[in-house]
């Protein structure tokens, strides 16, 4: 496990947070060795369903994620530029990650993904599937538990482009 000062910090977007809330796995954010997740106020405001907002607040209180906000002029400048292209939450995530050299956790595609790769470099976007893969590798979840969450997300119209996490990891599903 990486030392806290060596942790990869990922600015979490509402898309990932809501997906994890849907399957009761928001606590994974605090269970991934070498990662720390932060949430800007604009993203927190996008979690509008009261029960989901409360779950996010509990996750922050439990230390699974931390709140962060703009602290540098460069972040505000990047945000002002990005907000005309992507949503407010996505713009906040990208601006903070770009200026601080952090990662972004988001399931947004197309324009957002292109912007993230341009501004952050390759391999700096972590999505819901990636979080599950990290959790499996860390022993926080089994492949079968992750596949159940995957199926539950698919019932909510969130599709992953593979049939099982076992396929991604080259393993067979096992119960814990």
Give me a quick take on this structure.
This protein is of the alpha/beta class and 176 residues long. It has nine helices and five strands, in the order βαβααβααβαβααα.
Write structural notes for this entry.
With 176 residues, this protein is an alpha/beta fold. It has a single domain (4-128), classed as 5'-nuclease (Rossmann fold, 3-Layer(aba) Sandwich), CATH 3.40.50. The chain contains 9 helices and 5 strands, in the order E-H-E-H-H-E-H-H-E-H-E-H-H-H. Strands 3-2-1-4-5 form a 5-stranded parallel sheet.
What brief labels describe this structure?
10% strand, 5-stranded parallel β-sheet, alpha/beta, 176 residues, 5 strands, 9 helices, Rossmann fold
Write the layout of secondary structure elements.
Elements: E1 8-12, H1 14-22, E2 35-39, H2 41-46, H3 50-61, E3 66-67, H4 73-82, H5 88-100, E4 103-105, H6 110-120, E5 125-126, H7 128-137, H8 143-155, H9 165-169
Helix pairs in contact: 4-5, 5-6
Q: Which spans have pLDDT < 50 for at least 5 consecutive residues?
A: none
In one word, what is the shape? globular
How many angstroms does the end-to-end distance come to? 22 Å
**Strand composition percent:** 5-15%
CATH topology description: Rossmann fold
Task: Estimate nothing, just give the exact number of structural domains.
Answer: 1
Helix content: 40-55%
Architecture per CATH nomenclature, i.e. the level-2 architecture: 3-Layer(aba) Sandwich
Q: Give the neighbour order of strands across the main sheet.
A: 3-2-1-4-5
Order of helices and strands: EHEHHEHHEHEHHH
How many helix segments? 9
At the fourth CATH level, what is the homologous superfamily? 5'-nuclease
Described by strand count, sense and barrel closure, the largest sheet is:
5 strands, parallel
Mean pLDDT over the residues? 92
Instruction: Tally the beta strands.
Output: 5
Radius of gyration, rounded? Answer: 16 Å
Specify the structural class.
alpha/beta
Report the CATH C-level class.
Answer: Alpha Beta
């Amino acid at each position: 496990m990486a030392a806290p000062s060596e942790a990869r910090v990922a600015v979490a977007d509402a898309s990932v947070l809501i997906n994890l809330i849907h399957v009761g796995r928001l606590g994974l954010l605090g269970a991934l060795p070498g990662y720390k997740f932060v949430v800007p106020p604009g993203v927190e405001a996008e979690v509008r369903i009261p029960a989901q907002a409360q779950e996010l607040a509990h996750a922050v209180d439990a230390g699974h994620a931390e709140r962060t906000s703009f602290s540098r002029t460069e972040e505000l400048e990047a945000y002002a530029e990005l907000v005309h292209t992507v949503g407010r939450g996505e713009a906040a995530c990208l601006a903070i990650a770009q200026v601080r050299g952090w990662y972004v956790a988001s399931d947004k595609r197309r324009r957002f993904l292109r912007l993230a790769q341009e501004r952050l470099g390759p391999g700096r976007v972590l999505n819901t599937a990636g979080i599950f893969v990290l959790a499996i590798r860390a022993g926080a979840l089994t492949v079968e538990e992750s596949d159940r969450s995957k199926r539950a997300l698919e019932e909510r119209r969130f599709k992953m482009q593979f049939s099982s996490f076992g396929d991604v990891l080259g393993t067979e599903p096992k119960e814990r």
